Automatic annotation (TrEMBL):
Organism annotation: Tangfeifania diversioriginum
GO molecular function: hydrolase activity
Protein name: Glycosyl hydrolase 36 superfamily
Gene Ontology BP terms: carbohydrate metabolic process
Source organism superkingdom: Bacteria
Keywords: Hydrolase
InterPro entries the record matches: 6-hairpin_glycosidase_sf, 6hp_glycosidase-like_sf
Amino acid sequence: MKILVFTILITAFWAGSSVSPPKEELKKHIQSNEYFAFVKEKAVEVVKTGFNAGDGYGEVWIRDYNTFIELSAEVFEAEVLRENLLVFFRMQGDDGNIIDGFIPAEKAGGGYNYIYSELEPRYAGHKNTVETDQESSLVQAVYKYVVATGDSSILTERVGDKTVSERLEEAMEFLLNHRFSKKYGLLWGATTADWGDVQPEHEWGVYLTNDTHYAIDIYDNAMFLIALENMMELLPEKKEKWQPVHQLIFENCRKHLWDNTNKKFIPHIYLNGSPFPDDFNENKIYYHGGTAVAIEAGLLSGDEIKISIEKMEENIKASGAASIGLTVYPPYPEGFFKNESMYPYGYQNGGDWTWFGGRMIQQLLKNGFVEEAYEHMQPMVKRVKNNNGFFEWYTVNNEPKGSGTFRGSAGVLWKSIQLFEEFAESESE
């Protein structure tokens, strides 16, 4: 990895000092970081206990599983991980759609409109229809599984009358057939806050309704781009078919969603009007999570990534949040979402989520921003130790909220530490 020239780095982590060590010492600090060691051990401990999203969830969610399956591969036999993935394919809709998650049928009772399949009688599934990331998440998870285990035979496994390879393509085709705007050449979903799964028009907000305002955002489309890249690598014989789709989505993300004047992604393109007041300037809101995923999709240049980091740092300071996991800034005003959890700086409306902050760390590392990555990693690993767990999200006062064993957070932090260690090892060679 190309290493940037190390200047100085402001962080309170360094034993009371406000200045980071020089470049040649960074490797040593990574390797001796007590928080890294604790988080790695704790992450393994948590992920060993199962596959549901966390102690507040009974279901195995694909958007979560996608972010800790690599860690699961360290502690489970490949066959166990494979079986979880196959459940999603057995419960795939006739139109190609993928469920959000599954739970043992006898435990189904969380208020969802449950989905059942003759191919998988053990489980009940559910799908938050305001989302447009389930299909992309499954493709990404299968890719990570194959890379982590070397088991490419899952691709030829038959589920019903189709192979997993065929079902992967059908999942992508579902998005093009049922969630694609021909006008903009991009995927749409319900209006949500960044990567969230709560629309403003309903007290719960997880299902499309007659009141839904349909919108295009960067998160859904960046996830789709990553999934297409993964699928073309898994199925190189299909690249000729899918490469033009990838190119179309990529170009239209830049054309329609990137605000070159303000160097940020606009929150939404509305297809049937906005749910918010006419005098509300939504473009003042910065989407941290969607930007991180867009970087992973290769949508931003090095200079644009640098500007994005600077904007995120400004938002952290202005909000008082503890980490780069801040979802959005500024948050949507009070009352803009009927779901009471979506108050300003609550839940997905300005809460601080390691689940996405960790993904930003990974992208900083992969794009050469090692010093910035190390600085922004510290508050996230420190609070894991301080709270003895991986909480779902944190308030701007750094108070833990939600599940205390949120496996997605464990997965992204574990992966980030792995990348730091690879960097340190490469520096010593």
